[in-house]
Amino acid sequence: MREVFQQELREVQERLIEIADLVEIAIENATLAFNESNVALADQVIAEDHKIDSASHALDELAINILARQQPVARDLRIVVSALRISASLERMGDLAEHIAQLARYRFPDKVVPKSLRDTFYELGTLDIAIAKKLTALLRSEDIKLAEEIRNDDDRIDELHAGVFDTVLSDGWKGAAVDTVDTTLASRYHERFADHAVSIAKHIQYLATGDFVGSDA
Amino acid sequence: MREVFQQELREVQERLIEIADLVEIAIENATLAFNESNVALADQVIAEDHKIDSASHALDELAINILARQQPVARDLRIVVSALRISASLERMGDLAEHIAQLARYRFPDKVVPKSLRDTFYELGTLDIAIAKKLTALLRSEDIKLAEEIRNDDDRIDELHAGVFDTVLSDGWKGAAVDTVDTTLASRYHERFADHAVSIAKHIQYLATGDFVGSDA
């Protein structure tokens, strides 16, 4: 019975990694679509988000099924409950990548943000991609050093996010209202994407060490 | 044992209602602070958000404890898992009410949105408050008619949210960048607040009827 359970936990972990892989692809393509006004790539991200949603719901069903059949307690129970939460955050990260792609799509053939902010958004996108890759690696390895790196990347994203508002609200900002709206939303989507990654990293760190780091993002 | 379990489920339900009550107070005060530039009320919402966070985490611990001790299966298991999800959404709704209060606070003594959009935001706030009240009643009664009403209110919020963008992006929009940013964020917070309520309503409806209505918001 114990062996079956361990086998099922590995299945849960594998499925989480598969979903995280899909999220990684989504944010990579969304960022590229956003930076380069690539409408075909934006459409692809939008069309494929349902895969993340389905995989996440299927994982939830598996986790509930394991709870019902295996009746885990203590740490085993927390692993399964955490899987439900990680799955919900991954699904939401997929939605946020989709929103970034939608901004690229609506503004095509124009770019979403004015020239003065392109470097900032390039860095935001690059950091979100790096975070998604570290998250997949963290789910695979439970190497807590990666959780620390994700938190540091998130701190940098928060700085950049604040900087975007400083720029938009400065006297030098010449953007039209549509630029202001899109810039505000895009920056917020990048920030929330990273927040969810930090939340997942905390769950994994908690499972690995027993210490919960702060409250949920 | 069965009786103890039923008693514990009632405890879970009571706690969810308590958190929903706190969320209801938060969105009422945040909306009033937002509409009337009431900085003291905004501060109160911000200062009290931790109560929602703590209550939500305490409920999560209770739910995990019940899973460990009572080992529920079938519908009983789904009730406890749903409680975890409802708790996460309520916590997030509290955060969004806090964000609305923060906008009021930052702009004080000015109002957050220009005159031309005040009626729209008055309606958005009124609908979010109504939704929060219906959610508390739904958690109390499992009266599925309320879930339907929450979905209808959410449809109206989506319309208003789209209308905000139409206004901001129209030629007639004379708002400064700060108005555009705050209006965009405020509208998005109201819309997400309602989305979480719809997601909770779906969980309750699923538990009451066995039919899951669409995918998670």
Descriptive labels:
homodimer; 217 residues; mainly alpha; Methane Monooxygenase Hydroxylase, Chain G, domain 1; elongated
Count of spatially separate domains of chain A:
1
So what's the CATH class of chain A?
Mainly Alpha
Strand segment tally of chain A = 0
Can you identify the CATH superfamily of chain A? Phosphate transport system protein phou homolog 2, domain 2
Briefly note the CATH topology name of chain A. Answer: Methane Monooxygenase Hydroxylase, Chain G, domain 1
Q: What is the CATH architecture annotation of chain A? A: Up-down Bundle
Stretches of chain A where pLDDT is under 50 for at least 5 consecutive residues are: none
Structural class of chain A: mainly alpha
Helix content of chain A: over 70%
> Measured on Cα atoms, how large is the radius of gyration of chain A?
19 Å
Oligomer: homodimer
Order of helices and strands of chain A: HHHHHH
Main beta-sheet annotation of chain A? none
Strand content of chain A: under 5%
Distance between the termini of chain A: 36 Å
Mean pLDDT of chain A: 94
Count of alpha and pi helical runs of chain A? 6
The shape of chain A is: elongated
Which chains have the largest interface? A-B, 29 and 29 residues
